[in-house]
Amino acid sequence: MELSDIAHLLRKGKWFIFSLAIIGLALATAYTVAAPKTYQSSTSVYVSVRAEGSTTAYEVGQGSGAAAQKVKGYLNVVRSSIILDPVIKNLGLATSSTALAGQLVVTAPNDANLIRISVTDDSPERAANIADAVAASLKTVATEQLDPGTDGNESPVALSVTEPAVAPEHPASPNLRLNLGLGLVSGLGLGLGAAFLRSALDNRIRSARDVETLTDTPILGALGLLPDADKAPLIVRDAPRSPRTESFRALRTNLQFVGPRAESRSFVITSAMPSEGKTTATTNLAIALAEAGSRVLLVDADLRRPRVADIMGLEGGAGLSDILIGRAEIDDVIQPWGRGGLTVLPAGSVPPNPSELLGSEAMRALLETLAADYDVVLLDAPPLLPVTDAAVMSTLTTGVLVVAAANRTRTHQLSSALDDLERIGSRALGVILTMMPTKEADAYGYGAYYGGDPMKTSASSPTTAPLSLESPRRVAAARRIAHQ
Question: Which of 44, 50, 66 has its CA nearest to residue 158?
Fold first, then answer.
């Protein structure tokens, strides 16, 4: 994973990571408030060994070394009953020496002749009293029992309290700052882990990079998401100056560089699965091609769920299926659209055997005839994976353009669709990305270059073509054929 991929993942999962970080802080705060408070108080005892008659540096050093050895020995007895039983008796504590030993932490910091005694208790005053009492008991036991003087002399060991215990003002546990820090770090860690896991499990295509890692098939265009695609799908007509319209013009330009340089070319436009914006992309591309002066025929070759006639505002009662079964002639059912060179051939009646009709000799002959009359023939075909219609037609045309919807199409679906075309010897000329986000990390469009909201442009922009310029003769013929 590259650095750009990590940055992309963080942008996509920022709210997820932020939410878990807040949850971590909230849980840490709740724990800190609910946890019982304990206080810690400490005292330090200095240990020295007197060596009578010590005058030389060597003798003084021997005394210091002996003190260090005493410190190591005392560390092992501070938490024993010989030290703690007198403490319990003097303070009147309702506990045992074993339990009291669990409240003590005894250390010798920095290998000095110091013994540091720390006591933890739920009362700050009691913690300080116990620490002082333990230090006093250690001094008594060390000088009177462990290292007493001989022949009535004083003990050679001297213990002095250098830092009396003080009742703390703030609890040692729970530590608010530490808990909040741990809660924040834990929340961020869980958020990052969840974001990476989500990215690993989510195999939807989100950007051109995902397609490029999946296949060598070129990306011909990336079309922005149309918020009102159901109500106003013809963005090229309705908003000719919008950035989304410009993306269709860029697709039109790229289409000129794919496939053989024949005088006329035909393309099957399909997708892996339904609802990937295939028909919307095909109709707008057809309008963009016609705007450039090409003679374009848009064929609704989806004989299962035809939508082209409804989108273009044309009569769809008769069309391709009626031609293929010999019930109509081409001139009777094709309908001109707009003021340019765009002509539409609706799907016509829905037949019981679409695959057989679309792969028939009649379809081959029809496509040869249409290729001779038009510069570009676009066939809006059903999706590849559910049915074989598009695969059947692909062998009869120049090639196939495969539509993939951002945040919807799965990588394995697109891969399977392209593999199906390769197995039958068809040419996948390119991939068209649709429904690209316009305000997120994967945003695509020309808004920054052209300025303004692309949807607001349509309000002040004139339309380039009326809904249709249907021939009354063709409409009447189509209606007559549909009712035969």
Answer: 50
Q: Residues with Cβ < 8 Å from 405, sequence gap 6 or more?
A: 205, 271, 275, 276, 277, 433, 434, 435
pLDDT in tens, 99-131: 999 999 999 887 678 899 999 999 999 999 999
Widest distance between CA atoms in the chain: 138
Cα 189 from chain centre: 15
Counting Cα atoms < 13 Å in the Cβ hemisphere of 202 gives 16
Alpha helices in 338-443 (DSSP H): 354-358, 361-373, 389-394, 411-423
DSSP state of 142: I
H helix or E strand, kind and range, residue 178: helix 176-201
What string of DSSP letters covers 179-239? HHHHHHHHHHHHHHHHHHHHHHH--B--SHHHHHHH-SSPEEEEEEP-TTTTT---HHHH-
Tokens of 118: 């720390």
What pTM did the predictor assign?
A: 0.62
Give the Cα separation of 114 and 171 in Å (integer): 25
pLDDT single digits (tens) 61-72: 455 677 788 888
At position 17, the amino acid (one-letter code) is I
Assess contact for 225 and 426: CB atoms under 8 A. Answer: no
Long-range residue pairs from 20-26, CB within 8 A, at least 24 positions apart, any chain: 20/187, 20/188, 20/190, 20/191, 20/194, 21/184, 21/187, 21/188, 21/191, 22/187, 23/187, 24/183, 24/184, 24/185, 24/186, 24/187, 24/188, 24/190, 25/180, 25/183, 25/184, 25/187, 26/183
Rounded distance between C-alpha atoms, residue 369 and residue 250, angstroms: 29
- Contact yes or no for 224/436 (Cβ under 8 A): yes
Of 184, 169, 273, 256, whose CA–CA distance to 221 is shortest? Answer: 256
pLDDT along the chain (484 residues), means of 10: 69 82 90 88 89 47 68 88 93 93 89 87 94 93 84 82 91 85 90 80 83 91 83 89 91 85 81 93 95 94 94 92 93 90 94 92 94 94 94 92 93 93 91 82 43 38 37 49 50
DSSP 410: B
